[in-house]
Here is the input.
Amino acid sequence: QVQLVESGGGLVQAGGSLRLSCAASGRTFPGMGWFRQAPEKEREFLGSFTWSTGVANYPDFVKDRFTLSGDKNTIFLQINTLKPEDTGVYFCAASDGSGWAYWGQGTRVTVSS
Here is the structure.
């Protein structure tokens, strides 16, 4: 049974940092990624990590505040200089090679101003 379990969310003040984790079990995946969904907004892609190369890719808007990394079956999302607009539920996903086939339950991040 495939499971993706996120952790590391919580309440943090603006300017602070968080490190989110996503542990995968049940099978291996070519790639994993992070998404977030802010209140009343659509889910947006934050970045992906390819296990075979150890390379992370990001959308343009992420810039330098977000860093993805991976170790064994766990990927991490380091978020620095948190802003109130970073508030939302952060989801981990795993690719089966043709798309984001598996999703975690999400971890909530709340950034206070």
